Amino acid sequence: MTTTLNELFAVDRLFDEDELAIAGTVRDYVKRDIAPSLAQWYEEGQIPARELARGLGELGVLGMHLDGYGCAGTSAKAYGLACLELEAADSGLRSLVSVQGSLAMFAIWRWGSEEQKQEWLPRMAAGEAIGCFGLTEPDYGSNPGGMRTRARRDGDDWILTGNKMWITNGSVADVAVVWAQTGEQGDGSGVRGFVVPTDTPGFSAPAIKHKMSLRASVTSELVLDGVRLPASAMLPEAQGLRGPLSCLNEARFGIVFGAMGAARDCLETAIAYAGDRDIFDRPLSSFQLTQAKFADMALEYGKGVLLAAQLGGLKDAGALAPEQVSLGKLNNVREAIKIARNCRTVLGAAGITLEFPLMRHANNLESVLTYEGTSEVHQLIIGQALTGQAAYR
Ligand code: FAD
């Protein structure tokens, strides 16, 4: 008689029936349609992004927590659970969905004009159009306020010039939400967002190769070489860094849940393996040292899910502060990567291959640790909340 991780923490009691039903649907879909191909995609560093996006659109997870324009309007907790199930398969899959729904679609939904919403959101929700979100630059990652990408006026038009780096979905996107400096302040206050169809002359998005992490995800550079856009391409409601930071907050929320999905998959794999593997004539799972590992990791998993559910409840109540999202992102990614590495030790040599998901998750989580605010940036956000002192510079 054994207890599952979720039973141990009575996880089901943290969510309502609809939320659990959505999680179950996503879990079944991922298991059936995606999981069998993941190791191959990861090894080849290629994903069938269009096909995947259409399938995920049919499943209803793209922008699922947004209202209207073909989006499902689910609770934040349901969205979080969907992220958890997607990342239990692969962080790259969850990244595709996060960037589409929480970054590109959210930017248009929250800050866009009615015309921009009508044009893009229904197609993006259906997975017929893929979006990306260009904030980071080669020289400005944790400090996007210094960005060099410039938008200058030419009559009524805008001309965009600059480079964005490490952009998820970039090479496969139909539309890019690009953040650019319109003034000379250099402090972020002149930052505006632009909705850029990727077939606009001057736009290109070369893929970044040789990644050791998130190999089942497209990561690209965006080159903006005098991209001419009509005045209507600017997101009218977003001024300054508040615009992009609001989107990051959405995506970070999904990661709080998602990271626990990767952790759960690692733990379930390691527990099952240890039960089957005989060492010194007994199952590996029967040794005290192994059980101590599992107990400690299960505890961190459970604490992470409890934290995620608490933040989800706050988000659904409209009461979630950015520093609370930082608590979740910092803790859950940090613990998930420890769990992935520790579970890998349980499998010994077998843990290093793609036959098992441990190293794939651990390597993926290196990116997750870095994007959407590094651990250090989240420590600084929490530190500022606790002390009232900003220590970024
Ligand atoms: P840096 O900012 O150069 O940081 C280097 C180190 O310095 C880090 O450890 C950091 O924590 C530390 N540091 C920074 N500031 C401080 C400080 N004040 N005190 C102490 N330490 C500090 N960006 C997008 O815009 N869109 C995307 O879709 C996107 N997708 C990504 C996908 C992948 C696979 C990856 C890896 C990145 C992606 N990013 C994306 C970029 C990501 O957001 C940045 O990598 C991240 O913000 C960190 O920036 P950086 O890599 O330039 O590191």
Automatic annotation (TrEMBL):
Q: Which cofactor does it need?
A: FAD
Gene3D superfamilies documented for this protein: Acyl-CoA dehydrogenase/oxidase, N-terminal domain, Butyryl-CoA Dehydrogenase, subunit A, domain 2, Butyryl-CoA Dehydrogenase, subunit A, domain 3
Pfam families, per database record: Acyl-CoA_dh_1, Acyl-CoA_dh_M, Acyl-CoA_dh_N
User: What InterPro entries has UniProt attached to this entry?
Assistant: Acyl-CoA_Oxase/DH_mid-dom, Acyl-CoA_Oxase/DH_mid-dom_sf, AcylCo_DH-like_C, AcylCo_DH/oxidase_C, AcylCoA_DH/ox_N, AcylCoA_DH/ox_N_sf, AcylCoA_DH/oxidase_NM_dom_sf, Glutaryl-CoA_DH_mitochondrial
* Keywords carried by this UniProt record: FAD, Flavoprotein, Oxidoreductase, Transit peptide
Which stretches make up the Acyl-CoA dehydrogenase/oxidase C-terminal domain?
239-386
Quick one: signal sequence residues? Answer: none
Q: Which residues form the Acyl-CoA dehydrogenase/oxidase N-terminal domain?
A: 17-128
Q: What SUPFAM superfamilies does this protein map onto?
A: Acyl-CoA dehydrogenase C-terminal domain-like, Acyl-CoA dehydrogenase NM domain-like
Report if keyword Ligase is assigned: no
Q: Where is the Acyl-CoA oxidase/dehydrogenase middle domain?
A: 132-227
Q: Which domain of life is it from?
A: Bacteria
> Would the keyword Acyltransferase turn up in this protein's UniProt record?
no
Give the family this protein belongs to, as stated in its UniProt record. Belongs to the acyl-CoA dehydrogenase family.
What is this protein identified as? Acyl-CoA dehydrogenase family protein
